[in-house]
Each structure stands twice: as C-alpha cells, then as structure tokens.
Design goal:
The protein is α+β, with helices and mostly antiparallel strands. It contains 2 helices and 13 strands, in the order ββββββαββββββαβ. A 4-stranded antiparallel beta sheet has the order 11-12-7-13, with helices on one face. A 3-stranded antiparallel beta sheet has the order 1-6-5, covered by helices on one side. The protein has a 3-stranded antiparallel beta sheet with strand order 2-3-4, covered by helices on one side. About 20% of the residues are buried.
Length: about 180
C-alpha cells in the first residue's frame, strides 16, 4: 500500500468537493479547480475527508494511487490558500516591471523580454528585482516561474540572472591570469 496514498485528505469547512462521473471539482474561497480522476482509482468522499483507494496492485495502479492523492491535496490547498514562487533578479541593469497583463523583463539583451501572463496567474513585482508568482494551481505556478527563470538562468561564474529566492548557486572559479 502506498504510504502517501493511504493517508486520508481532510476537507476544510470553506472548501466544497464534488465528484461527478470521474471529474473531481473543488471549490474554495480563492477559486475552483477540476481534475480528471484515472479510471483505476476509486475515491470516496466523506463529510470531513476524502479517501483514495486502489482496487489492485498493478504497477500503474500503484503509481497512480499516491499521485492522485497528492494532486487532490494540492487542489484543496490551492483553492484555500494558493501557491506562490518568488524569483530574484540579480545583475546590473536587470529589472522587471508589470504593464497590465504583461511582465516586462530587462535582462541585458538588445530588447526587453515581454511575457504575457496566463489566465489564473497573478504576478507582483517588488523593488524591480523581486518577482512573486501566485495562483491556485500548483503546477501552473511552478511552470510559469520556471518559464520566467529560463529567460536568463543564473550564471555559474558571476551569479547574474534570474533565480528562485531559496536557490543556492555554487559559483565556479574563473580562469587564472598568466
């Protein structure tokens, strides 16, 4: 039995959960999320908790068991509290600003990088060097943060670029002068 999969998920009072056919719908104060439950997995919704079960021990069923439980738990956390990722921009002249629904990044290229924000994602720019990505879908928040970071990943020699706020970059030693 999956250690993660067998743990029941508690449902907070402000969150409503509904299962229709194989589509799970979670509604909370921050928004609404839906997820297609795999046919191999069984879900029972009780008044204060959700239990994820699997009918057999096939390899695919075992792998889907823990995954489905974590995805449902992330949906409940997302509609209740939301998720956020913080990015830091380091480098002389590197900065970010928000113009409506477009994030404008100046990263030392000959042109500014314009990144249109997807639906359901909110971005805050603090002090032009700190970008906070917020949303209710954990996968989407992580994907947008990774996309922003990919425009200028941290340089291993000087440390310039976009990095996560909790990311540590081990700097390499440059060439020695002759």
């Amino acid at each position: 039995m999956s250690r993660i999969g067998k743990v029941p998920i508690s449902i907070p009072k402000e969150v409503k959960v509904k299962l229709t056919d194989s589509i799970l719908e979670v509604v909370g104060p921050k928004g609404q999320l839906t997820h297609q439950i795999p046919s191999e997995i069984q879900i029972s919704i009780e008044p204060e908790q959700i239990v994820v079960k699997r009918p057999d021990d096939h390899r695919t069923t075992r792998s889907l068991h823990g995954l489905t439980r974590v995805l449902i738990a992330n949906m409940i956390t997302g509609v209740r509290q939301g998720f956020e990722k913080k990015l830091e921009i380091r480098g002389i002249g590197y900065r970010a600003d928000l113009q409506g629904n477009i994030l404008r990044l100046t990263l030392g290229f000959s042109h500014p990088v314009l990144f249109p924000l997807p639906e359901g994602i909110k971005v805050e720019v603090e002090r032009q060097t700190t970008v906070t990505v917020r949303g209710i879908d954990k996968q989407q928040v992580g994907s947008v943060a990774a996309k922003i970071r990919s425009f200028k990943p941290p340089d291993p020699y000087k440390g310039k670029g976009i990095r996560y706020s909790n990311e540590y970059i081990k700097l390499k030693v440059g060439k020695a002068k002759a």
